[in-house]
C-alpha cells in the first residue's frame, strides 16, 4: 500500500494512475488519494505483477508402455521387446505444460496412491519444471492411476486403464484449501479423467468467484451432465469427442459448426474444437467462428499430448489477458512444437521456444 501511494504523484501516469483515472483523467492531486480502494490498489499492482495462477484439477497416471509383437492369447505369457513407465494423465500433462509456459504458477490438484507409481508421478512432475505439486495428495485406499499400453510393430496399440486414485481417491471431494485456490485463480482447467462430480465441485467454486472454466473433453466418453457443462465457459473437444458428445457428424467444417451449435444449446457459450492437422476453430455463440490453421511442423514425430498442450497453452495466454485469436495462435505454436518430439510431458515446449516460433512465422 505504501508503495502505491509513493508512486501516485500528481504528474505520474503510472499504471495505478491510469487505472484510477480511466478514460477521463482528472487532476490527480484532487481525487486520487481519497478514491483508493483495496480493489483498485490490487489492480494497479497487478499491472506489473505476473498473471494470476492457473489451477488444473485432474488426473495423474503412470503409463506403462510395452512393445510387443502381438497381444498374448488367453493363458499365454509373451516377452516384450522393451518397456518403460512414463508420467501421463491429462491433468498432469496439462499442468506440466502450464508449468513450462505460464509466467505465474500452475497448480495441479490431483490424487495419487501411496505407492511407487505415485512417487514416479510426483518425481516426473517436479522434473517437468514449474508445476506446483503441493496439492497432489496421496489417497490411502487406492492405487495410483495407471495404464498398460501395448504397442504393436504396425503402430496399433491396445490400452488397459486402472482409474485408481484418479477415480476413487477423492473421498468427500476437493478440500477447502484447494477450493480457495480455485477461487483465486486466473483460470481453472478441467478434463474428464476424474469423476464428473469432482469436476462439478471445482467448476462451481470457480464460477462463484468469476474464474473462467476451460474443460477439455478428453477422457471418459460417458454423456456430459448438463449441470456440469453449464458451469463451463470454454469447452474444448477434438473432432471425435465433439461427434460423440453431440451424436452428430464432424467430418466437414459445416458439420463441425453445426455440432458446436448443439453445444451452445446444451449450455456452453464457447467451443474450442481441435482438428489435428486441420488446426482448430473457436465457436462463440452468436459470433463468426475464429479459425486457426496449424503452425507447420518441420517433422511430425508423435502427436501424443498435442491436444493437452493446445488446451493448456490456450489457458496460459488467456490468463495473460490476450484476445482469443492470439490465444489460439499461441496454442497452435506450442502444439506444433509438441508433435516434433516423442512422448507427452517430455515433448512440451518452454515459453521461449514458443515465442521464437511465433516470431519466425510472423502474424497470420
Ligand atoms: N501434424 C501437425 N502439425 C502441426 N500441428 C499439429 C499437427 N497435429 C496437431 N497439431 C496441433 O495440435 C493441436 C491438437 O491436436 P489434435 O489432434 O487436434 O488434438 P487431440 O490430441 O485432442 O486429438 C491441433 O489443433 C494443432 O494445432
Ligand atoms: Mg486428434
Automatic annotation (TrEMBL):
It comes from Zea mays (Maize). Activated by a monovalent cation that binds near, but not in, the active site. The most likely occupant of the site in vivo is potassium. Ion binding induces a conformational change that may alter substrate affinity. One of its GO terms (biological process) is D-ribose catabolic process. This is Ribokinase. It comes from the Eukaryota. One of its GO terms (cellular component) is cytosol. It is found in: Cytoplasm; Nucleus. Its EC number is 2.7.1.15. Homodimer. Requires a divalent cation, most likely magnesium in vivo, as an electrophilic catalyst to aid phosphoryl group transfer. It is the chelate of the metal and the nucleotide that is the actual substrate. Belongs to the carbohydrate kinase pfkB family. Belongs to the carbohydrate kinase PfkB family. Ribokinase subfamily. GO terms for molecular function: ATP binding; metal ion binding; ribokinase activity. ATP binds at residues 238, 274-279, 307-308. HAMAP family: Ribokinase. The active site is at 308 (proton acceptor). Residues 53-350 form the Carbohydrate kinase PfkB domain. Catalyzes the phosphorylation of ribose at O-5 in a reaction requiring ATP and magnesium. The resulting D-ribose-5-phosphate can then be used either for sythesis of nucleotides, histidine, and tryptophan, or as a component of the pentose phosphate pathway. Substrate binds at residues 61-63, 89-93, 193, 308. K(+) binds at residues 302, 304, 338, 341, 343, 347. Pathway: Carbohydrate metabolism; D-ribose degradation; D-ribose 5-phosphate from beta-D-ribopyranose: step 2/2. The gene is LOC100283183. It catalyses: D-ribose + ATP = D-ribose 5-phosphate + ADP + H(+). SUPFAM superfamilies: Ribokinase-like. Its cofactor is Mg(2+).
Amino acid at each position: 500500500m505504501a508503495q502505491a501511494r509513493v508512486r501516485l504523484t500528481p504528474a505520474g501516469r503510472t499504471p495505478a494512475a491510469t487505472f484510477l483515472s480511466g478514460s477521463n483523467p482528472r487532476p490527480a492531486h484532487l481525487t486520487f488519494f481519497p478514491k483508493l480502494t483495496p480493489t483498485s490498489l490490487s489492480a494497479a499492482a497487478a499491472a506489473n505483477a505476473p498473471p494470476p495462477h492457473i489451477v488444473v484439477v485432474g488426473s495423474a497416471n503412470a503409463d506403462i508402455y510395452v512393445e510387443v509383437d502381438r497381444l498374448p492369447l488367453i493363458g499365454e505369457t509373451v516377452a516384450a521387446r522393451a518397456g518403460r513407465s512414463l508420467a501421463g494423465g491429462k491433468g498432469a500433462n496439462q499442468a506440466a505444460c502450464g508449468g513450462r509456459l505460464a509466467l505465474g504458477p500452475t497448480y495441479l490438484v490431483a490424487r495419487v496412491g501411496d505407492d511407487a507409481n505415485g512417487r514416479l508421478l510426483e518425481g516426473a512432475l517436479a522434473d517437468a519444471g514449474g508445476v506446483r505439486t503441493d496439492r497432489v495428495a496421496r489417497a490411502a485406499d487406492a492405487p495410483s492411476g495407471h495404464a498398460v499400453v501395448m504397442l504393436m510393430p504396425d503402430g496399433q496399440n491396445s490400452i488397459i486403464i486402472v482409474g485408481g486414485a484418479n477415480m476413487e481417491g477423492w473421498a468427500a471431494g476437493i478440500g477447502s484449501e484447494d477450493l480457495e485456490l480455485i477461487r483465486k485463480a486466473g483460470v481453472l482447467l478441467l478434463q474428464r479423467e476424474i469423476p464428473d462430480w469432482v469436476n462439478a465441485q471445482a467448476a462451481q467454486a470457480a464460477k462463484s468467484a468469476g474464474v473462467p472454466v476451460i474443460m477439455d473433453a478428453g477422457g471418459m466418453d460417458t454423456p456430459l451432465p448438463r449441470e456440469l457443462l453449464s458451469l463451463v465457459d470454454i469447452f474444448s473437444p477434438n473432432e471425435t469427442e465433439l461427434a460423440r458428445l453431440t451424436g452428430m457428424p464432424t467430418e466437414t467444417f459445416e458439420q463441425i459448426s453445426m455440432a458446436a451449435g448443439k453445444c451452445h444449446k446444451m449450455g456452453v457459450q464457447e467451443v474450442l474444437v481441435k482438428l489435428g492437422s486441420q488446426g482448430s476453430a473457436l465457436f462463440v455463440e452468436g459470433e463468426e467462428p475464429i479459425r486457426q490453421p496449424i503452425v507447420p511442423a518441420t517433422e511430425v514425430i508423435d502427436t501424443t499430448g498435442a491436444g493437452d498442450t493446445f488446451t493448456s497453452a490456450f489457458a496460459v495466454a488467456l490468463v495473460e489477458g490476450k484476445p482469443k485469436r492470439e490465444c489460439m495462435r499461441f496454442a497452435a505454436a506450442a502444439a506444433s512444437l509438441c508433435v516434433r518430439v516423442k512422448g507427452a510431458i517430455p515433448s512440451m515446449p518452454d515459453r521461449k521456444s514458443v515465442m521464437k516460433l511465433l516470431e519466425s512465422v510472423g502474424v497470420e
